[in-house]
User: Fold this.
Amino acid sequence: MKIADLDFEPLINADTIEKRVKVIGAQLSEDYKDTKPLFIGVLNGSFLFIADLIKHIDIPCEITFTKLASYYGGTKSTLKIRDDIDISVDIKGRDIVIIEDIVDTGNTAHYLIDKLKLKEPASIKLCSLLLKPASLLTKIDELKYIGFEIENHFVVGYGLDYKEMGRNLKDIYKKV
Ligand code: IMP
Assistant:
């Protein structure tokens, strides 16, 4: 499949994603059953993941969003983060679960976690649909929930884009 100037091939199909999302939802529901967690979705890439995940969470919870960007339309992280939309909720004393589409270098996750810690939440954990372990520059202690570990492919689909295209695809594809 061609998206803009690049070719992509299937990596993870919609059925496999759905099953894994269900398991993570059940796990979060169990782990946070005695608290009222605040889920923070990191836009744009996590919009489908969070929409599906939240349907499998059967405990009282709240959802809010922040918008960060680090890729600027290419296939490599720029290691610079653009802070587009900040969260509007008071997180002091709250149990926070950040929902990311993918952790690549880990730069975005560290940036957001450090920023949120200044606001004194009770706890912060990170849930990411995808993780590229070989790209990760520094360990993220808060990373507790991972959908799939993948090799160092550039991927699109299920919310993830290449040049803003491909977010609507049901499956995840990797660059050929
Ligand atoms: P990091 O800061 O390098 O961990 O990158 C995190 C962000 O870069 C993610 O939230 C994505 O928006 C984007 N990103 C990283 N890898 C990919 C990819 O393979 N496809 C599309 N976007 C990616």
Remarks:
- The chain has a mean pLDDT of 94.
- Residues 92 and 118 are 9 Å apart (CA to CA).
- Helices lie at 14-31, 47-54, 107-117.
